[in-house]
C-alpha cells in the first residue's frame, strides 16, 4: 500500500492508480462481494467441520430417526433434525460441504490443466494443432456429459476418486474454448512480438508473456466449472451413481430424503437449498470476476 | 455456400465416427465383457463360450467395424437385460424424449425471448433485474431438486398435476418446466445482448425517425435480426437438453430414452448404453450442423470462418 503516502494533491492530478481502480471495481461489485463472502463462509465451515459439527455425521441412532428440525418443532439437540437412519442432519450438511468443495476444486483443477494446455497450444500455434484441438472440442461437446459420466462411474464403481476423475476428464471443453480465444488475442500484441524479437524461447513466451495475460479469463472459467462440477456430482449422486453411501454428499442426501418427501419435505428441501446457495455464490463470483476484469469495464 | 456445407458435413461425420468409437470402447473399459455377461457364478468354460458366442475373442477394431456397420443400418445388437433388439427398445422410448425435448425448448423460448426483449428495452429496470436474477438462479438450480420441489408443491400439496408417468399432457407440464428452465438462461442472455446491439444501430434510428411505433420497431425491425443467433443457440441447446433429459425423466418416471439410459446403466446393459450414447450424440451433431448451416445461410460472413 505505497499509495497511501502520496500527497493528496498529487493524487488528484495523476488520478487513481490501476491497483486502486481494481480494488474499487472489486469492492463495488455487489454480486462479486456477496458470492465471495458466502463462498468464504462455506469454505470455513468445510475446513472446520470437525469443530463445528455437533455430532458424528456417520453415527446412526435408531431411537432418534427423522427428528424434525428446530423450526418444525424439533429440539436443539438436532438443530436440523435427523435422517431416516437417525444421523444428525446438520453434521451431515457440514461434512457434505467438504465433499462438494473438494470434488469441485479438484475436478476443476484437472479439467483446467487439460483444457488450458489444449486451448493455449491451439491458440498459440494455430494451423494443424488448432484443427486437432477444435476437433477434440467438437467431439467432447457431442458426448452427453451426464450419460457418459454415469456410464463410466457405473463401470468403474462409484467412489470419490472415480467421480472426481470422470468429471475432471469430461469438463475441460469450456477451458479449451476460452483459453484458445484469449491466447489468439494476446498472441498478436506488441509485447509478445517484442519478446519474440529479442529471442525468447517458445516455453518462455508462453509462461511469461501469454499466461499472465490470460490468467483473468482462466480464473473466471475455473469458478464457473467448479460450480458445474459440483452440480454434476450432486446429480450423479442423486441418481445413485456418484458418491456412495454413507458418505455425506448433498445430492445423496436429497436422494435419500426423496422417499420420505411426502411426509417430511424438509429432508429434500434443506440439502438442495444449501447446494443451490453454494452454486449460486460460486456463479455470482465468477460472473463478477468477469465483469471486473473485462477490458471494456476498465475505468 | 455448398463448399461450406460440405466442409461442415465432413467434420460432423468425423466427429460422429470418433464419438461412436469412444462409446464402443466403453465395453472394454469394463474389463472382460464376457466375464461380466456370464455373471459371478460362471465357470471358465462358460465365459469362454460366451466370449466366442458374442465374438469378444476377435480383435477390437474388427468388432468395432462390425458394430458400426450394423449400427449404421439401425441394428445395435441385443439388450443384455431385456433380451430384445436394442433398436426397437430405443425406438419405443424415443418419442417420449423427443416430445419432452420439443416441449422443453418451446417453453424455454417462450420464456426467454420476451423476457430478453423486455430486458433490452429498459436496461437496468426492474424487468431487466428480474430477468438477470432468473437467469443467474437458473444456472445454479439443481434440476433434480427443482423437479422434486415442483412435485411437492403442485402434485402433493395442490394436487393440480400428476406426480409421474407419461399418460396425458398434464404429465409433461412439470418435466417441461424443469428441462426448459435449464435452457432458458443462455437463450435469455443472448436475446438481451443481441437486442441491445441491434437497438443501437442506425436502421433502428431510421425506423424510429420514420415514426414507426415502438412495438413495430421492436418486433418487425429489431427482433428479426437479433433472433438469428438465438435460433441456432436453441438448436444447440436442444441437443444438450436431450442428453440432459436423463435426470428429468428419472425424477418424473417418464419412460423415455433418458429413463432407459438410467435403467440400462444401473443394470450394466452395455449394448443399450452404447447405442444411447451414440444416438444422443447424433442428435447434438445434427442440431449443431443445422445451426451452422442456418447461420451461414442467414449471415454470409460466417461462411468464410
TrEMBL record, chain A:
It is a multi-pass membrane protein. Keywords: Cell membrane, Membrane, Transmembrane, Transmembrane helix, Transport. It is found in: Cell membrane. Belongs to the binding-protein-dependent transport system permease family. This is Peptide ABC transporter permease. One of its GO terms (cellular component) is plasma membrane. The chain crosses the membrane at residues 31-49, 99-125, 145-172, 214-243, 263-282. Its main location: membrane. Coiled coil: none annotated. The gene is dppCch1. GO terms for biological process: transmembrane transport. Residues 97-286 form the ABC transmembrane type-1 domain. The keyword Transport applies. InterPro entries: BP-dependent_transpt_permease, MetI-like, MetI-like_sf, OppC_N.
TrEMBL record, chain B:
GO terms for molecular function: dipeptide transmembrane transporter activity. The chain crosses the membrane at residues 94-118, 130-156, 168-187, 226-255, 275-298. SUPFAM superfamilies: MetI-like (SSF161098). Its main location: membrane. Residues 94-291 form the ABC transmembrane type-1 domain. It comes from the Bacteria. GO terms for cellular component: plasma membrane. The keyword Transmembrane applies. It holds the Pfam family BPD_transp_1. It is found in: Cell membrane. InterPro entries: BPD_transp_1_N, MetI-like, MetI-like_sf. PROSITE patterns: ABC_TM1. It is a multi-pass membrane protein. The keyword ATP-binding does not apply. Keywords: Cell membrane, Membrane, Transmembrane, Transmembrane helix, Transport. Belongs to the binding-protein-dependent transport system permease family. This is Peptide ABC transporter permease. The gene is appB.
Amino acid at each position: 500500500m505505497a499509495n497511501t503516502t502520496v500527497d493528496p494533491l498529487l493524487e488528484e492530478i495523476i488520478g487513481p492508480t490501476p491497483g486502486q481502480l481494481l480494488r474499487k471495481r472489486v469492492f463495488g461489485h455487489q454480486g462479486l462481494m456477496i458470492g465471495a463472502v458466502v463462498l468464504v463462509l462455506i469454505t470455513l465451515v468445510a475446513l472446520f467441520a470437525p469443530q463445528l459439527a455437533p455430532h458424528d455425521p456417520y453415527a446412526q441412532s435408531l431411537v432418534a430417526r427423522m427428528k424434525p428440525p428446530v423450526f418444525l418443532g424439533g429440539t436443539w439437540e438436532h438443530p436440523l433434525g435427523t435422517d431416516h437412519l437417525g444421523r444428525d442432519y446438520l453434521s451431515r450438511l457440514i461434512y457434505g460441504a467438504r465433499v462438494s468443495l473438494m470434488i469441485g476444486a479438484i475436478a476443476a483443477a484437472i479439467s483446467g490443466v487439460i483444457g488450458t494446455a489444449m486451448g493455449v497450444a491451439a491458440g498459440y500455434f494455430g494451423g494443424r494443432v488448432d484443427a486437432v484441438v477444435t476437433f477434440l472440442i467438437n467431439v467432447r461437446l457431442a458426448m452427453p456429459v451426464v450419460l457418459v459420466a454415469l456410464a463410466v462411474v457405473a463401470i468403474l464403481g462409484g467412489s470419490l476418486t472415480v467421480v472426481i476423475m470422470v468429471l475432471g476428464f469430461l469438463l475441460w471443453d469450456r477451458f479449451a474454448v476460452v483459453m484458445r480465444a484469449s491466447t489468439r488475442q494476446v498472441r498478436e500484441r506488441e509485447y509478445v512480438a517484442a519478446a519474440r524479437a529479442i529471442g525468447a524461447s517458445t516455453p518462455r513466451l508462453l509462461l511469461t508473456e501469454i499466461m499472465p495475460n490470460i490468467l483473468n479469463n482462466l480464473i473466471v472459467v475455473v469458478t464457473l466449472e467448479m460450480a458445474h462440477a459440483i452440480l454434476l456430482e450432486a446429480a450423479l449422486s442423486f441418481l445413485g451413481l456418484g458418491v456412495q453411501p454413507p458418505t455425506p454428499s448433498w445430492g445423496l442426501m436429497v436422494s435419500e430424503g426423496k422417499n420420505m418427501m411426502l411426509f417430511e419435505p424438509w429432508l429434500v428441501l434443506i440439502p438442495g437449498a444449501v447446494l443451490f446457495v453454494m452454486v449460486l455464490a460460486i456463479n455470482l463470483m465468477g460472473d463478477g470476476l468477469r465483469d471486473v476484469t473485462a477490458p471494456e469495464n476498465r475505468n | 455456400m455448398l463448399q461450406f456445407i460440405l466442409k461442415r458435413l465432413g467434420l460432423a461425420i468425423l466427429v460422429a465416427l470418433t464419438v461412436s468409437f469412444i462409446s464402443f470402447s466403453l465395453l472394454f473399459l469394463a474389463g472382460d465383457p464376457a466375464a461380466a455377461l456370464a455373471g459371478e457364478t460362471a465357470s471358465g468354460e462358460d465365459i469362454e463360450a460366451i466370449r466366442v458366442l458374442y465374438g469378444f475373442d476377435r480383435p477390437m477394431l474388427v468388432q468395432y467395424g462390425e458394430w458400426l456397420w450394423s449400427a449404421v443400418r439401425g441394428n445395435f445388437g441385443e439388450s443384455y437385460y431385456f433380451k430384445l433388439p436394442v433398436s426397437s427398445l430405443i425406438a419405443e422410448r424415443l418419442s417420449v424424449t423427443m416430445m419432452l425435448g420439443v416441449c422443453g425448448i418451446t417453453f424455454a423460448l417462450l420464456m426467454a425471448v420476451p423476457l430478453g426483449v423486455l430486458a433490452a428495452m429498459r436496461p437496468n429496470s426492474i424487468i431487466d433485474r428480474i430477468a438477470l436474477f432468473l437467469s443467474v438462479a437458473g444456472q445454479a438450480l439443481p434440476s433434480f431438486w427443482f423437479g422434486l420441489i415442483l412435485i411437492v408443491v403442485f402434485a402433493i400439496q395442490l394436487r393440480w398435476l400428476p406426480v409421474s408417468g407419461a399418460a396425458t399432457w398434464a404429465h409433461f407440464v412439470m418435466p417441461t418446466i424443469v428441462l426448459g428452465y435449464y435452457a432458458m438462461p443462455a437463450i435469455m442472455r443472448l436475446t438481451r445482448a443481441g437486442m441491445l446491439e441491434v437497438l443501437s444501430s442506425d436502421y433502428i434510428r431510421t425506423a424510429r425517425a420514420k415514426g414507426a411505433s415502438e412495438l413495430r420497431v421492436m418486433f418487425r425491425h429489431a427482433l428479426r435480426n437479433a433472433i438469428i443467433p438465438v435460433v441456432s443457440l436453441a438448436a444447440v441447446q436442444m441437443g444438450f437438453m436431450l442428453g440432459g433429459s436423463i435426470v428429468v425423466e428419472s425424477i418424473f418416471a417418464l419412460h423415455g430414452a433418458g429413463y432407459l439410459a438410467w435403467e440400462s446403466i444401473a443394470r450394466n446393459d452395455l449394448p443399450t448404453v452404447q447405442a444411447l450414447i451414440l444416438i444422443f450424440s447424433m442428435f447434438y451433431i445434427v442440431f449443431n450442423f443445422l445451426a451452422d448451416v442456418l447461420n451461414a445461410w442467414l449471415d454470409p460472413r460466417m461462411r468464410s470462418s
